[in-house]
Amino acid sequence: MNLYRKPKIGLLFIGAERFQPLGEGTKDGTYKERKAIETQKYIDRMSEFCDVVTGETVYTREAADEAVKKFYNEKVDGVVACFLSWAEDFAWIRFLRELPPMPLMLVSFVRDSLSITDTNDENQFVDFLSAGALVGFQEASGSFRRFNRPMSDLCIGTVDQVMPKLRTFANAAKARAVLRSSTLGLLACYNEAMWATYVDPYNIYMKIGPEIHFISVAEVAEEVEKTDDKVIDNIVKDLCHRYKVYDNVDFEKFHASVKATYAMEQVAKRYGVDLLVLNDIDTVLFEFVGLRPGFTPLDPKEERVTVPEGDIGGGLATYILQMLGGKPANFIEPFYIDHENGRFIAGHAGPNHYHSGEDNTIIARDERFAKSQWKYAGAPFAWHVFPAGIKTMLHMSEKDGRMKMVATLVECLPTKHYLASYSHADFRPLNGTPEELFQKICENGVTQHYGIVDGDHLDELEMLAHLCDFDFSRID
């Protein structure tokens, strides 16, 4: 799955059939010629953030039908529709009826300025007709609401005002499309210690889209046995070159951890898994493999997301953020509040993307399991501190058959490695105290798991929740 591809958006323009020839011989040309120039400007602006699928401006019922076929066949993520002026609404109504269920945004572009002074002049009269997008927008809104299509929204404004909204819509529509064609792997079971993280797999498939494969520990163990040690030796060598290695690391266990990681990733690839949810505290995993794999993803460019503790909701949150952020996301659990310094500390043991900077990662012994009875007790892992900056923090879980999102912005502070066995960092709310933040979060009913990624993606998450019929709570 290409998480970082550009959104693919169909762009529909509707014009007035009877206006087409007006203005022939005038300085600015016919209505149709003026609209061709105008629409190209919108296409150029939208092409900055998405792949645009469009055709000639729609003036007839037949053209509306052709637009529907084109958007469906091209598998667009969503459609942006725009009345260019007043127009006969038969084409628009046909389009609304025939378009298959998909995200749809009705937009009206407002001119930055007008130069209409005397419509006795034919050129200015045609400009007056051409400038009447507000008329078309109002007319279109009636049928838009009467059809009451799901996954639909509307907006109006200048090009500069509207384009950020269209970017948000496009990214959310793409996220929905990617989710619907993704594959989720659960290895090997839910976490029996945390029932609150359980979700209905059928509901996930029906409402969100990922197909779920259940992967057994036995498959990973078999893959470990047949993996060539020379391949693993080269990976270990590369990791040692890339990151600092603590002196207390046992290299036999280091090799075993990398080998188990490699085997797990190979099994995930065979299933075509885009999001791997690993129950890394399952005793069966420790009995048959001897450790929890500690170095996924082995390839810094790998787009597959892997999360621990069998939490599908937490995995979806991390996967969605990685898609929207266009860069690796991390899986966290807020541990405790440092009241005196107005911050909270969060992170997680187990798999976490660790390739965001060489100084941020140390290969260290897993102190949490160092004294356990398992074969490779204390096997090393990639101990990571999350890079500083503003992060979107997202929780996802299920309630009453609906997925819910709870999202906020936090500041990840510069942090040194100090929580052994946990990838981690210190965080600060952008507004208020940590106590106030978690009061608001927990009033929604959550679990302890979140995804984080660089940047502000709250608007995109809210739009995605609208498109997917999730409950959404924005914590400011």
| Rg over alpha carbons | 27 Å
Shape, per Cα inertia axes: elongated
Please give the CATH class of the largest domain. Alpha Beta
Return the CATH architecture of the largest domain. Alpha-Beta Barrel
Strand order, sheet with most strands: 11-12-17-16-15-18
**β-strand number:** 19
| N- and C-termini, Cα separation | 33 Å
Poorly predicted residue ranges: none
The number of helical elements comes to 14
Q: Which class do the helix and strand fractions yield? A: alpha/beta
Helix content: 25-40%
Chain-averaged pLDDT: 96
Beta-strand percentage range = 15-25%
Commentary on this structure:
The protein is an alpha/beta fold. It is 37% helix and 24% strand. α2 (61-73) packs parallel to α3.
